[in-house]
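Bit of a strange request maybe. I'm writing a small parser for structure token strings and I need a real example to test against, not something I typed by hand. Could someone generate the tokens for this chain?
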Amino acid sequence: MKKPQKILGIISAILLVFVLTACPAPQPKEEPENLFTLTVLHTNDTHARIMDFNKHGTTCNDDERGEDKCFGGVARRATEIKRIRAEEPNMLLVDAGDQFQGTLFYTQYKGKEAKTFMNMLGYDAMTSGNHEFDDGPEILSEFIKGINFPFVVSNIDVEDEPLLRGLIKPWAITDKGGRKIGIIGLTTEDTGTVAKPGPNVYFDEVEASAQRAVDALAEWGVNIIIALSHNGYNRDMEIAAAVTGIDILVGGHTHTFLSNTHPDAEGPYPTIVESPSGDSVLVVTAKSWGMYLGYLNVKFNDDGIAEEWSGEPILLDSSIAEDEEVLAEALKLNEQIEPLTKLVVGRTEVDLTGDENINRHFESNMGNLITDAMLWEAKHYGMEIAFYNGGGIRSGIQKGDITLANVLEVMPFSDTLATLELTGADIKDLIEYSVSRAEDPNNEGTGRFLHFSGLR
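Reply from user aminoacidic:
Good idea to test on real output. This should exercise your parser:
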């Protein structure tokens, strides 16, 4: 009765030996390829917010600072940059344009304030926004001559402008951790019509210019390329999808907020776009005014392909201390403009909104005040209506006294009140153009939205 069991045991033993000999021995796991880690800190559309500011974008007062209601400012940004720089050996600090224009600091110093603090904070590169050309080539040339880093614009031709010739780079190369990093710059083609670059400055098509710059960098053996773009979030995604070779695109212009955690974000950080070669392009931007410091950490393989990434904009609120050295310099510059902040020129019984999500899409109390004031003055010349574009409203005013500083922060462009005659057809076309992008959720082109007084 036990014989079958013995035979079964022999068969089992044979099968066991077969299994053991047929299975290959465990192999050691292949070590992953060494990855190069790059940290990119970025800003955009800071618009001369040198001091900290409240939710309306106006400079904080002592009461607001005591109640922890203040954000941003170069001193707070400096603290966070220094902390991260000490922790991350391969770090780049870049800006996507529009350092100029927006507060009394620019009105008084015309870019000298941006030059001072960008040098102090150790920026590695920036591109131009449209507002860098608000006061023509002369002011911009002085700014570029004074900065310690390249001013990069790949889609501009300044050969006919002697003030800028040789100052603007089509691309730049920097070294981090033994790896070459290429940087290109792309500014909006509309700069010639929305700013004052002068007759000798030309803006080329963005995508073609970007591809030429990327190809030039590739010839130098660069396979990690960052594009600094002042074109707006939607255009940035189009550029990323059209140009081969861009790895990271740092954007600006539309003041877009990206985040993986905030409910009000307009997209993820980073937003991933597939390039023509099938590689991932990481698109990031950091809202505006320097309220946030963009933080992106990327791991690249030897071929310059992004393998891993993480990041999130860092809110620069009162939990972050202000750097003492930078704050001292900011306060020194503030001394010359402080008298203007105290000169009372009016009073409001309600908050006047500076929210661009309102002023660039809908009628607002700030737009009504501005156009009513324009019409009040222009009626002396027989005018019947007044209009002002929502993109020109740059700040809000809180309930209470209105100072000259408030007025200049709301309307910082030194515009002149102009009068003209229009036909009914002209006005109809004007209104149609005004609302043509009013429903764009990303504020692309919506600075054209007009506020009116006297129109019925």
